[in-house]
Amino acid sequence: MGMTMTQKILAFHAGLPEVKAGDLIEAKLDVVLGNDVTTPVAIKVFEDAGFTKVFDKDKIAIVLDHYTPCKDIKSAQLCATARNFAKKHEITHFYDVGRVGIEHALLPEKGIVGPGDCIIGADSHTCTYGALGAFSTGVGSTDMAAGMASGENWFKVPEAIKVTLKGKLKKYVTGKDVILHLIGLIGVDGALYKSIEFAGEGVSELSMDDRFTISNMAIEAGGKNGIFPVDEKTMEYIKGRFTREPKIFKADDDAHYEREVVIDLDALEPTVSLPHLPSNTKTAKEVSGLEINQVVIGSCTNGRISDLRAAAEILKGRKVAKGVRCIVIPATQEIYMQSIKEGLTEIFIQAGCAVSTPTCGPCLGGHMGVMSEGERAVTTTNRNFVGRMGHVKSEVILASPYVAAASAVAGCVMTPEGLKEE
Amino acid sequence: MGKVYKYADNVDTDVIIPARYLNSTDPAELAKHCMEDIDASFASNVKKGDIIVAGANFGCGSSREHAPISIRACGVSCVIASSFARIFYRNAINIGFPILECKEASERINGGDEVDVDFSSGIITDKTTGETFKADVFPEFINKIIKSGGLLAYLKEKVER
User: Fold this and answer.
1) Residue A285 in contact with residue A270, Cβ under 8 Å?
2) What is this model's ipTM?
3) CATH classification of A5-264 is 3.40.50.1240, yes or no?
4) CB A129 within 8 A of CB A215
5) Second label for B24, Cα 20 to 30 Å away, from A38, A152, A314, B34?
6) Does any CB of chain B come closer than 8 Å to the CB of residue A38?
7) Which of A45, A122, A365 lies at the smallest CB-CB distance from B152?
8) Per-residue pLDDT tens for B55-102?
9) Burial class (CB in 10 A: 0-12, 13-18, 19+), B8
């Protein structure tokens, strides 16, 4: 029987001619990633087990992005632990304040990850790199420790769901709307233990930034990974960034999929996820008018340059509504600089937004935009669980940068079209 | 044997241990805030040996290993759910914390019941109702990790072999 793209990558890295769903394998890793929350736990596990050397200092990435610039003494201690470890082991890909970006925007940008790679990261959104045609999945700190020690880890070969994309997205509809729609369709455990494999002619219509956003939120459907085929857009993106030889894998024609979902891109509308599950989706139009207190535009899901361009397109010449706080966070220093060069940062500041240095901050209720009791936000982030962005009685509505920016101007959930009609 | 704390589907890692406490890695400190955003009195009421029983997709969301660490540090002896989110599942196995998948037990056991678990056989006994259930067994490879005492111990043994 044929193999899916994920299965082929796993077989290659396990040194096996073939694998099938359910097999437990041990595979070699190209990159092992951690951040300031998860790395200190991994370091303790690594050192307590008596390991003194990392398997390869060039294949470990440590990115201090969650609570940085440090919000308090405890988080400063976490960063110090990670920083000392990185120095001691001469970790090549170590990123600290001033050079740091949000890990899942940073690693592709720096060419640390690429097609055909097998990657684990102690952060659930590590599945982002599936956009590059890599097998990439989130794990915990003990897994990170094992990866750092041995360069290998264990995996259960996943079954797959095939998501066939048809047609082309309309104006103001983005990758975020595609993935929210899909999660609404299959549920937060619809892809539990499985890979989501994107296919169909619609793939070529999606920009790389759209693909990153889509793969990023595979975890919100419970997925192990979310992977795109490698095409010209992928190769164009990695040019000048990724210096290793890309390994291109294609799903076999007779690969087995547990389920196939077809999404007609033309039919999609700007979509939002209401509290408190990403699967609780509606079109933005259906819930427009719902009052808000805060907007966050950024995160590993939607802090890339095309996201900032989309937000600026809406905010240009307009003002953030009175009573609404709009926080814009470019995901990396390169994106921040590009935003300045293109005049986007000026648009944001003139509109009354707060623009921040790269950080995960508000997405997980860490800092830089934590909400009080009874407040509601429209955000471009990835989770709207109870208490995710602050008080247990605050609410998060997930949306695209277009909808988030339009909502900031309107002071309530709003589509870009709705804003024009006002 | 322990008393059951019962929860619904999709208990996420943000409610198991909110991110505002992730600036600590100390298990005892994390334990103080375990389940805080879903059950504020849990951490102060839970006793050593107690059991969490939940629905589908337990532990969904972030990769924070702080979630199973905080549950274990509270004294909870195991989590029984009809299914687990995959990163939580890995994390629990990797740190050697017992979890059991059993749809029937998840549906039939009530909050407050006294439950006994035999980990070698996977037999779950609800002493309050008298019902027994059989949890899914782990594959051999995962049993090896658990028997070694966690992933790093397994890795050490492998390297030494």
Assistant:
1) yes
2) 0.95
3) no
4) yes
5) A152
6) yes
7) A45
8) 999 999 999 999 999 999 999 999 999 999 999 999 999 999 999 999
9) exposed
